[in-house]
Amino acid sequence: MIGKLCRLRPYRIDDAIALQHEADEFLVARWMTQRFPHPYTMRDAQEWVAHAVADQSGSTYLVIEVDGALAGGLGIEPLESEREGVAMFGYWLGRSYWGRGIATEAARMLADHALEAGDLRRLEASVFVDNLASIRVLEKCGFTLEGRLRSLYIDRDGGISDAFLYAKLK
Fold first, then answer.
1. Which of 14, 34, 40, 92 fits as disulfide partner to 23, beta carbons 3.0 to 4.6 Å?
2. CA atoms within 13 A on the CB side of 83
3. What is the end-to-end Cα distance of the chain in Å, rounded?
4. Is residue 79 a contact partner of residue 86, using CB atoms and an 8 Å limit?
5. Other C-beta atoms lying within 10 Å of the C-beta of residue 136
6. Whole-number mean pLDDT of the chain?
7. Residue 153: beta bridge partners?
8. Contact call for residues 23 and 49 (beta carbons, < 8 A)
9. Residue 122: exposed, middle, or buried by beta-carbon count in 10 A (0-12, 13-18, 19+)?
10. Domain spans of the chain?
11. How far apart are CA 66 and CA 120, in angstroms?
């Protein structure tokens, strides 16, 4: 998928070095769940790239590329059973790319594509209540605030944090 500001593409094995460089920044990891490690080591990057390249679960993991460089990532993880047709949606962007509309364009491209092209009827994204930039990205992409999830996360400082649940429907 190609936009005006970025391109979305599958991960490649040679992305590990750039991934480690962009992801190993506390301000990038600050509002991510602890599934996104910090510090982000070369081993973390190699393991993630290998997982993303080999994934057979039906999930979609893509690189956000800007001017030929890995700038971030985003993904969709479908749910199962009674939640079939629903997927979790998430994204991150390297700090040097913030404030340029790249995350919004990337998230909009993937969300729209996923809902138009596949069997998904609903995308869900939970976001720390203090992550104002990510909240704004979701709202610009047409996600709707559905509720506040109290005491959902333990943040990077060990504090308990609420989250907002956003969704976008087909």
1. 40
2. 10
3. 19
4. yes
5. 12
6. 96
7. 161
8. no
9. middle
10. 7-169
11. 27
User: Two tokens at 165?
Assistant: 């649940």
Pairwise CA distance, residues 107 & 130, whole Å: 19
Q: Where are the beta strands (DSSP E) in 20-143?
A: 60-66, 69-78, 86-93, 122-128
What's the token pair of residue 126? 């939970």
Residue 145, token pair as written in the block: 């605030």
- In angstroms, what CA-CA distances link 26 with 31, 94, 95, 108, 168? 9, 10, 10, 25, 29
Residue in the block written with tokens 């729209």: 112
44 touches 20 (CB < 8 A): yes
Per-residue burial over 33-66, b = 16 or more CB atoms within 10 Å of its CB, e = otherwise: eeebbbebeeebbbebbeebeeeeeeebbbbbbb
| CB neighbour list of residue 165: distance below 8 Å, 6 or more residues apart | 124, 125, 126, 145, 146, 147, 148, 149
pLDDT digits (tens, 9 = 90+) for 109-163: 999 999 998 889 999 999 999 999 999 999 999 999 999 999 999 999 999 999 9
Residue 74: both structure tokens together: 């985003």
Classify domain 7-169 at the CATH superfamily level: Gcn5-related N-acetyltransferase (GNAT) (3.40.630.30)
